[in-house]
Amino acid sequence: MDKINQKDTIFTIVSKYPDFVKVMEAIGFSDIAKPGMLQSAGRFMTLEKGAKLKGIDMKEIKEVLNANGYSLNEEEE
Amino acid sequence: MSEFINNREHRQTKLKELIRRLHDGATVEDVKEEFDKLTIGVTATEIAEMEQALVNEGMPVEDIQRLCDVHASVFKGSIEEIHSEDGFEIADFDEGHPVHTFKKENRLIEGLLENEVLRFLSDYTESKKSDDSLKRLSQSIDKLATIDRHYSRKENILFPYMEKYNMTAPPQVMWGVDDEIREKIKVIQGHLKEAVKLPVLNQQVRELVGQVNEMIFKEEEIMFPMVLDTFSHGEWVEIEKKASADIGFTLVHAVKRWLPKSGDSVEATDDKDNSANVSNGSLNINGAIPFDAGSLTQRKSIPYLTLCHWI
Lengths: 77, 311
Fold this sequence. Notes:
The complex is a heterodimer of chains A (77) and B (311).
Chain A: E1 2-5, H1 10-16, H2 20-27, H3 47-54, H4 58-67, E2 70-73
Parallel strand pairs in A: 1-2
Chain B: H1 2-23, H2 28-38, H3 44-56, H4 61-86, H5 98-126, H6 131-145, H7 147-164, H8 169-193, H9 198-230, H10 233-243, E1 282-284, H11 293-297, E2 301-303
Antiparallel strand pairs in B: 1-2
């Protein structure tokens, strides 16, 4: 499974795994998937921040990631 | 612990070496690979320390200045990642700096939502629509309507600079949401004058509060770090000037002007500590650098920026 860290920026993740855009849409990160967003705001938006912003539980995100063949690496604070 | 310190020292020595090689004519590509290997997890603080060390060692300021363009591009990726981790605190900026003012407004907006809008909404619901509670709720929504000034300053003053740097998508998306918020406020204001059903009003106000809070989060976690990383000092001066003109502020009555002084008219400050204080991610720059001191003296504490941002 491809590993993803919740503190990684969306830009970093998509640079590594271009298909991740589809997963983002599945999670509900719609704005960041819009053209031009990834290269700008995506450099500052992390998975963790996105979850907080959209009010989505990280557990839920983890499930979607796992279902799509990614594993989530949760960092200790 | 000692291992950690040694690593840091080693890294700093190596970083300095790389800068010197760039200075001696090596290209960015020549040193990039080595740099990447060396700087996994490098912090902006370390870069600031290193630059300060070079100044202290007597590297002419002009040389550092010449290096800036080159090593800014090498450092860019690493620094961006640090910004995304650290976030920014209101205390990091001088009063009157446009970001300081935006954040100050955000704190007051949060307070208004929590202590007035949501509270008066509950009062209104519980009191079964008493006239008194309706009046207070209406007043709090009218206060919230002045958020238009915060958004207008952002849209008309900050966004053009973002577009200049080809950041076109974030402003478009944000502007769309700002307009939705403005529209929701108007709808609610209308409903408060009519006899709208409580559950409808409840839902609309709560939705609005959620959306305003989301916008605050987007501004502070994404937009401010992005523009602080990009705009030049001169551009911030221009932005401050425009922002002070005629749009006005949200919930803030008077905003102190942020006017970095230039030339010889620099007033002495009472800060006697001229040493570089980089342990907390800011650099105490007062008196430490013998150039462009005019515009720098007022901003003693510079968050997360390397010297190059100020040359």
